[in-house]
Structure formats: structure tokens, C-alpha cells
Write a structure and sequence with these properties.
The complex is a heterodimer of chains A (303) and B (371).
Chain A lengths: L8 H10 L6 H12 L4 E5 L5 H12 L3 E5 L6 H4 L1 E3 L1 H13 L2 H4 L2 H8 L5 E3 L1 H6 L8 E5 L6 H13 L1 E4 L3 E4 L5 E6 L7 H6 L1 E5 L4 H11 L5 H15 L9 H13 L7 H7 L7 H10 L1 H10 L1
Parallel strand pairs in A: 1-8, 1-9, 2-5, 5-8
Antiparallel strand pairs in A: 3-4, 6-7
Helix pairs in contact in A: 1-2, 11-12, 11-13, 12-16, 14-16
Chain B lengths: L1 H20 L6 H14 L4 H12 L6 H12 L16 E4 L19 E4 L17 H13 L6 E10 L4 E2 L1 H10 L9 E8 L2 E6 L5 H15 L5 E6 L3 E3 L1 H4 L4 H11 L9 H17 L4 E5 L8 H14 L2 E6 L12 H6 L5 E4 L3 H12 L1
Parallel strand pairs in B: 1-2, 6-7, 6-9, 9-10, 10-11
Antiparallel strand pairs in B: 3-5, 4-5, 7-8
The chains are: A alpha/beta (303), B alpha/beta (371).
């Protein structure tokens, strides 16, 4: 089933599950509503809880093209919406000049000549609006908090009527609005006006059972008992107030690392040897080490 | 059927109103979205309605606990629980241009200590007087002077490009445009280069008991720093961390301070500076707010927590910040040495250590931040 045909949050959950993405009820409801009511979905949450993956899974489940715009400071219309291919334009001008045709033309005619669609470079936002694909594309605007206010302002404009105006060519309006997923790591507040346009969901770390399922799906070579140990340890470490509690991405990495070094039964030594796949700060590793890897293991297995 | 729909609508609107009463700022349009969302997911079961509301009505994780509480009260028919608000030390602001001290009998609950009256008299120079020994009236005048302080803030290179006359990289867009005017001959090369942006400024104000004589003056300074500038963030550090950016962004200082007093529940409480900094680092700073920013900590450095925590958190902060400025009101005291445990632990990670006991020193701070 295509995710656009889903008539309930449960169906969304099932369709995403087919794409190996396990969404909980909250996220499934958020996606279902965003699709049905055609609104952008703003996802916030700790790094590594799978915000970006949502867009990938959505694209796979809908058959739409995934168009990603990674935000950064200074991102402007030329990189996000469209740009003219200046080198080609200049070449075209020179060619016209050489052929002697430029001489007779008036500035207006010359301008029409120069600003044709073939000289237009479409950047992600425009690609998402003028997609020729049958299914609406999935537009992922990743880490919008890294961009600056100016960018947010014109993003708001585009998201409110799904159209872009190129002064020289006219207005491009999306025939079918793209599915828009916006992610933010909350390094600053996204502007209220943008938030009002969007539906909002705070993505949490998964629970233990869900994480085991995710591990089994994403790293099929990991045995059930190892997946259970990994999920339990990750859940325990998240309680420790670390600088960077392990996200789902890290637990998958860790499970794969354990399999790679040939561990099937997690013990203290294997834990210590592969900890760098799970914890990325020296201080965090020291804190875990100080509690004793063996002790943590024993504790979580006790249940 | 129609009446059932009506009842449901009324119920939904009532829920949104209950959320607003509980202090959530729910935009008007969201109520409509909520109604549509509930129509999509159905109102037979509770969980879908819960999620429909969360997705359409909220906009930050801080709102979730309040939402949960109101939802539980509203949809399970229980009596709405009133969120327990810890007793705030009242901070009363009076506008009084008559020059008379307000009659204490008019407001019997408010003791003299908690009364800050603002008088508009001609400013005499109080700039070098210690805030702690200023009378209420002098403080009020200082507040007026402080409101005139403007922190321009230092600037950093931006990635956004701006057009220039002759320096930087070629700007093909404008070059092509100009070429059109010369019949297609790119006779004039245009240029562009990176512009500048204000560097982010983060102000952390210690509001613990030991800072009492200074905190009330300094929060005015924090407000003055925020007015008319974007890229400024402010927090109160007490037994816990409270973000004040939104509250203090209001231009009117009295309104801003009243709002700040409302959200800071631990005004003049204990000190857990290290924990507060840790919280700042975890929730905001390391994620990006402190990165490349000028971080100003306004505190006397008294910390009842472990000095190791302080040391560790200051080290983390100084690794991501552009510069860390510590403003300590006690520094001006003759014979002061930074012996307070917290202060001693923090000092190795501080770029500038300055006094902050009077207006003069705050002017110096404003200059320093602008360098």
C-alpha cells in the first residue's frame, strides 16, 4: 500500500514498517495528519533519534523522490531555490555576439534570450515544487536551526503557497505540494511563524522493546539475545546523564561492531573494547568505565 | 448527529482553552487544525486524540508535561489539577513620579525590601556607586541609565555574501546583468565577499541568595542588552536553569521583569552553579547556542555543589565558546581573592574576569563585549 492511501495512523505505522522504519503511535499520527491535511511536519529531538530517517522512509513508502536540503548558515536563495547558469549565459552572449546577432537586438530581446529555462539551475526547493514525478516528492529540510532568520523567512513564503517566483520567467506553482519534513536540533528557536505553519512532533529515544525490533530490522545479523543486551545497555546509559546519550544510530553501530569483532555473547571485555562505537565523548566513556562495564551488564540483565 | 458534532467541537475548544489557562500559548489557527486532526483520527479512543492534540497544538518539548496534565484532567473527567506554583518572592514594580515613598499601608503584603520604585528624576552620576549600597531610589535611577546602555556586540564573518565594489570574488549574477546593458559585452566585473554578522551573546545571570544585592540591578542590565538586538540569549542560574530570552525580549523593562519574575521560581534560593552550567551545556550550549558565542556569566562564584562539576562544565563551555567573560560583583571589594570554591575552579577556563558591582563596570563590560 502507498502511504498516501493510508486512512489511519495504524496503517501509516504498518506501511513505514514495511520500509524497515518503526514509528511509534505518536510519530505515526503526526505523519498521518501531515499527509492528510497537507502540512509540513517539524520534527525536533535529540541527535540520533532518527529524524532524518523519517523522510527517507516516507519517500520509499510513497514512491516520491527524496529531495534533501541540508541547512547551514548563510544558505541563500541561490543555493536553496534556483540560480542562473552564469557561465552558460556568458558563453551564449559571446556566441550571439560573434554571430553578430547581438548587435541588432534590443536589451529586452537580449534579456529574453538570456533568461530561458535552459539556463536555470534548479536547487532543492524548486525541484520539490516542479517535480514531474507522478507521486509528490518528499522534501527534507534538514537541521533548519543551522540556517539563519533570513532563510527561514523565505522558507515560510514558499511553504505557505508552494510557489516560487523567478522575476525573469514567472511563477512556478507546485501541481501537487511536496511532503515536507523539517528537522531541528534546537540550537535556537525556530521562528514562531514557521512553527505555526507546521505540525510538530518531539521525537523521543525508543523504548527497549522497540529498540530491539529496530536493531533486528536494521542489523539482521545481530542475534536476538545480543540485540536485547545492546538495547538494555543503551537504555541504562541514557539514564546516566551523559553528555551525548547514545542515539539509535549509535546502538545500531555498536551492535554491528560487536558482530564484526565476532562477539555474540556480550561480556565485559567486548563491551570495553567496542565502547567507542557507542559513546563519542572521552568523559562519557570514562563515566561508563568508572561504573564498571561488567556491573552495568549484570544490572541490566537482572532486569 | 449535528448536535453530537457540536458537542465534540465544544469539547475540543474547551480543551484548548484549558491549555491556554494552564499557560500554553496556543495560536488561534491551531484550534482549527486540532479539530480537523481529530476528525481524521476519530474521537472514539483517547490515544489518537492525545496525539492529534500534541501534533497540532504544541511547539516545544517543554510544553509536553503541561499538556499531559491538562489532557488527563480534561479527557478523563477528573477535576483539573492546578499546577503547583512555588511561592515567588514578590517583586513589585511601582511607577512613582511624585518622589514620595509609597505608603506601606496601601499595600500591606509587600514589605519595603521587595519594593522597587522607579522615579524619574534628573540623573546624577551614580555610575561608580556599588549596587549593594544603593538605596531603592538610587537603584531606580541607575535602571534608567542602564536602559540607555547598548551592547553592540562583536561581529564575526558571515557565510552570507554581499556585493562589493572591487574586492572579493567575482559575482557572476551581477556581471551578467551588467553585461546586458552593454549589449552583451561583460565589460564590468562585479564582486562580492562575505559580510559580517553579530556574534551571538549568551548571558547567564546567577539569581541565588548570595547574589541578591546585585541580581536585581544586573537583570536590568541583561534586559538592556537584549533590547533591540537579535542573537542574544539569557538564562537565570539558581537551583535550576531558567531560560529568560522570551520573557526579557519585551521592550518595556517593567513588563519584561514581571514576566521574568514569574518564570524564575528559585529567585534568591540556593546555589548550584555547577549543575546549572551543566544543564545549560547539555540542553543548549554544546548543541550550538554557545558555539562561537560570547558567553557572559554574571555571578559571585558561590557554589555549594562539587567544585569538580564546576571545573568540568566550565572546561566544556570554554571549548565551544568564542570567549567566556565572568562578571563578579565581589571582585571590586578591596582584598578580594577568588577563593570561593566554585570561582577558583572556574577561573582557569575564563577568558576575561571583571568586576560588575556598579554601572561603570557594566559600561566596561559593554565595551568588552563589543570588541
Amino acid at each position: 500500500m502507498n502511504i498516501h492511501d493510508a486512512t489511519s495512523a495504524d496503517q501509516v505505522q504498518a506501511v513505514l514498517g514495511d520500509q524497515d522504519y518503526l514509528a511509534d503511535q505518536g510519530l505515526a499520527t503526526a505523519i498521518f495528519l501531515a499527509l492528510r491535511l497537507k502540512r509540513p511536519l517539524l520534527l525536533e529531538g535529540e541527535a540520533g533519534v532518527g529524524k532524518t530517517e523519517v523522510a527517507k522512509a516516507l519517500a520509499a513508502a510513497s514512491g516520491g523522490k527524496l529531495i534533501r536540503l541540508q541547512c547551514y548558515e548563510g544558505l541563500d536563495a541561490a543555493q536553496a531555490v534556483y540560480e542562473w547558469d552564469y557561465a552558460k549565459q556568458l558563453l551564449h552572449l559571446r556566441a550571439a555576439e560573434a554571430a553578430g546577432s547581438a548587435q541588432g537586438l534590443e536589451t529586452k530581446a537580449l534579456e529574453d534570450e538570456m533568461y530561458q529555462e535552459r539556463f536555470l539551475i534548479r536547487r532543492p526547493l524548486m525541484q520539490a515544487l516542479v517535480s514531474e514525478n507522478e507521486m509528490p516528492p518528499v522534501l527534507l529540510i534538514d537541521e533548519v536551526d543551522r540556517a539563519d532568520d533570513e532563510f527561514e523567512a523565505f522558507l515560510l513564503e514558499i511553504l505557505s503557497d508552494y510557489s516560487v517566483t523567478v522575476p525573469e520567467l514567472g511563477t512556478f506553482t507546485a501541481e501537487q505540494p511536496p511532503v515536507v519534513i523539517i528537522t531541528s536540533n534546537r540550537t535556537r528557536d525556530v521562528h514562531d511563524a514557521l512553527k505555526r505553519r507546521c505540525f510538530y512532533h518531539w521525537v523521543e529515544h525508543p523504548g527497549i522493546e522497540r529498540e530491539i525490533e529496530i536493531l533486528r530490522l536494521r542489523a539482521p545479523e545481530v542475534s536476538l539475545s545480543l540485540a536485547r543486551d545492546v538495547a538494555l545497555v543503551a537504555a541504562e546509559l541514557r539514564q546516566m546523564g551523559l553528555y551525548k546519550p547514545p542515539g539509535v544510530a549509535e546502538t545500531i553501530d555498536w551492535a554491528e561492531a560487536l558482530v564484526t569483532v565476532g562477539v555474540d555473547d556480550l561480556d565485559e571485555e567486548a563491551f570495553a573494547g567496542t565502547i567507542s562505537a557507542l559513546l563519542k565523548y572521552r568523559e562519557d566513556q570514562q563515566r561508563a568505565s568508572a561504573r564498571g562495564f561488567g556491573d552495568i551488564l549484570a544490572l541490566v540483565r537482572q532486569g | 448527529m449535528a448536535s453530537a458534532q457540536l458537542t465534540l467541537d465544544r469539547h475540543l475548544v474547551g480543551f484548548v482553552e484549558a491549555l491556554r489557562r494552564a499557560g500554553l500559548a496556543v495560536p488561534v489557527g491551531s484550534t482549527l487544525d486540532f479539530g480537523r486532526a481529530v476528525a481524521e483520527v476519530g474521537a472514539q479512543e483517547q490515544a489518537p486524540v492525545y496525539w492529534a492534540g500534541r501534533v497540532t497544538l504544541l511547539s516545544s518539548p517543554e510544553e509536553i508535561p503541561v499538556y499531559d496534565q491538562v489532557f488527563a484532567a480534561h479527557w478523563q473527567g477528573g477535576a483539573p489539577q492546578v499546577q503547583e506554583v512555588p511561592d515567588l518572592p514578590p517583586l513589585t514594580l511601582l511607577l512613582d513620579d511624585a518622589g514620595q515613598a509609597p505608603d506601606p499601608e496601601d499595600s500591606p503584603e509587600v514589605s519595603d525590601d521587595d519594593l522597587v520604585s522607579v522615579r524619574y528624576s534628573h540623573a546624577e552620576v551614580l555610575a561608580s556607586k556599588d549596587f549593594a549600597v544603593c538605596t531603592d531610589q538610587e537603584l531606580a535611577e541607575l535602571h534608567q541609565l542602564m536602559a540607555q546602555l547598548r551592547l553592540t556586540g562583536s561581529r564575526r564573518r558571515s557565510r552570507r555574501l554581499r556585493a562589493t565594489q572591487r574586492s572579493g570574488r567575482p559575482d557572476l549574477r551581477r556581471t551578467v546583468r551588467a553585461a546586458l546593458r552593454t549589449g552583451g559585452e561583460p565589460a564590468r566585473l562585479m564582486f562580492r565577499q562575505p559580510g559580517e554578522r553579530p556574534r551571538r551573546l549568551v548571558l547567564l545571570l546567577d539569581v541565588s541568595g548570595s547574589m541578591e544585592p546585585y541580581a536585581r540591578a544586573l537583570i536590568r542590565f541583561v534586559h538592556a542588552a537584549m533590547v533591540g538586538r537579535s542573537q542574544v540569549e539569557s538564562f537565570a542560574l539558581g537551583t535550576r536553569l531558567t531560560r529568560l530570552t522570551r520573557e526579557l525580549s519585551t521592550r518595556d523593562p517593567d513588563v519584561a521583569l514581571a514576566r521574568a519574575a514569574e518564570v524564575v521560581s528559585d529567585w534568591s534560593g540556593g546555589t548550584r552553579l555547577g549543575d546549572g552550567l551543566r544543564c545549560f551545556n547539555d540542553e543548549w550550549g554544546i548543541r550550538g547556542m554557545a558555539r562561537g558565542a560570547t558567553v557572559v556569566i554574571l555571578s559571585d562564584g558561590w557554589d555549594r555543589g562539587e567544585p569538580e562539576i564546576m571545573e568540568e562544565q566550565m572546561a566544556r563551555l570554554s571549548r565551544v565558546a568564542y570567549q567566556v567573560v565572568w562578571v563578579n560583583p565581589l571582585k571590586a571589594t578591596p582584598g578580594y581573592a577568588p577563593l570561593a570554591q566554585g570561582m577558583a575552579a572556574a577561573l582557569p577556563h575564563v577568558d576575561r574576569f571583571i568586576a560588575g558591582h556598579n554601572l561603570e563596570s557594566l559600561r566596561y563590560l559593554a565595551e568588552l563585549v563589543g570588541e
